[in-house]
Amino acid sequence: MLLGGAASGAPGPAGSSEDQESFTFRASHAVRTIGGMDVRDRTVGAIVGLALGDALGAPFEFRRRDAIPDPLLAFELEWMGRPPGTWTDDTAMARNLWTSLIDHGGRFEPDDIVARHLAWLATDPPDVGNQTRLALREAERGTADAARAVFERRGPEVSAGNGSVMYCAPLGVVRAFDREALIDEAPALSMLTHWDGRCRTAVLSVTLAAAALVRGDDAEAAVVEAVGAVAAHEGGEELEFLVGEAGRSRPVDGPDMGFTLFAAAIGLRTAVEAPDVETGLREVVGLGGDTDTNAAVAGALLGARHGWGALPAAWLDRLADRPQLEAEAEALSALVASGEPR
Predict the structure, then answer these.
(1) What dotted CATH number matches 47-338?
(2) Digit-coded pLDDT (tens) for 141-162
(3) Are 46 and 308 within 8 A, CB to CB?
(4) Cα dist. 159→97, 148, 155, 330 in Å?
(5) Which of 105, 182, 243, 311 has its CB 3.0 to 4.6 Å from that of 265, i.e. a possible disulfide?
(6) What is the model's pTM?
């Protein structure tokens, strides 16, 4: 397996790193249509897969690993008094992103995305990350570079949360055939709410992988390339380590469970190692910690790899707002397909 491996002295959230095994690019790219899957299948799989992972992990959020039931009670438990299958702020913010992209013909419009986030925040949702709330409140007051203001006030020790990586995958999906645009837009998306460089690194790596998987690239090649692309960025070396070790030698269910590189690393690894969507998402939630976010990232990448038809039907039957999510995913897939080389 190419995805890292144990290295001595695991780096922590502060961003330190030790010598570690480097990635080796040796996997070949696949054709764009694999086993009958096309761009539409993978796009819908990514969007609905994000919501599915989020809803699966929601009832177990912030639990220690040893408190997660085995076998996992999948879509059987309530979340904050809401029925099984309810998704959280991860999907709500992702939906703001993908509906903005749809309504603007695929254009990335940061002001519109923030406006949608603010409209959602005004509905008093049951779960909003602290850093996200602070940044959006600054934006509401008209503060320029709202997330930067929050970062400078709070400092880096508490600024590398997973609130931007949790919902970024749709940007990678819609940029499946425009990598150059994604290189600029992914960090900009993170900086709407999360200014820390490690958050930008996480978002860029996940969106690059999502783009490659929607194109139909080999999963291992997609992840190796995505991690390599951010190697020189803040937290890049730590991400490489964590792709192999998050949830293994490096627990993800402790006080730093909301660390952005945990969510990115677990999602990237799972996209390669899991044999199918259900197995992968069960394993991610079983690690404990910020289960809904980790599973949302993994669900998007697994859905992009395996396609809509591979999402567990019994879970889909209980997913909140499934018809609307699927209709919006179909609309997004039309934008993705329009950019595919002929």
Answers:
(1) 1.10.4080.10
(2) 999 999 999 999 999 989 999 9
(3) no
(4) 22, 10, 6, 35
(5) 243
(6) 0.91
